């Protein structure tokens, strides 16, 4: 059997399509996990909340109320600002405005918070959510 007969298009596709499918499904999850694991080792500094506001957001099917928490922190004598509350999230959304207001009541202007930052790029940061708080949308 020649090499040309061994590697026919149907045989190649039979092996490549499942590999592409697995890569597409599992690749992002593996990358996200390794990123979150690395982020957990970032150093932290004290920061302060400087702004809290609610914005109405809409997509094709739903209407949400989203809360933004902006904060400042200082690394190497450089004052920085951000609004990420977790490694990949900058906003907290709820379907009911009252639920969002109730959640945001736990944060005050000038409140001191812990801010984790990337030592290689201190502009990348996120605030540590106080114990018992969950900002997951529902």
Would you give an account of this structure?
With 138 residues, the protein is α+β, with helices and mostly antiparallel strands. Helix content is 31%, strand content 36%. The protein contains 3 helices and 6 strands. Strands 1, 2, 3, 4, 5 and 6 form a 6-stranded antiparallel beta sheet that branches. Strand 5 and strand 6 form a beta hairpin. It is flat, with a radius of gyration of 22 Å.
Span from first to last CA? 59 Å
Categorize the overall geometry: flat
Strand content: 35-45%
Binned, the helix content reads 25-40%
Order of helices and strands: HHEEEEHEE
Category from helices, strands and their pairing = alpha+beta
Largest sheet: 6 strands, antiparallel
Number of helices: 3
Average pLDDT confidence is 79
- Could you tell me the radius of gyration in angstroms? 22 Å
The count of DSSP E runs of length 2 or more, i.e. the number of strands, is: 6
Low-confidence stretches: 29-33, 134-138
Q: Topology of this protein?
A:
Layout: H1 3-6, H2 9-39, E1 44-58, E2 63-75, E3 78-82, E4 92-94, H3 97-104, E5 112-118, E6 121-127
Antiparallel strand pairs: 1-2, 1-5, 2-3, 2-4, 5-6
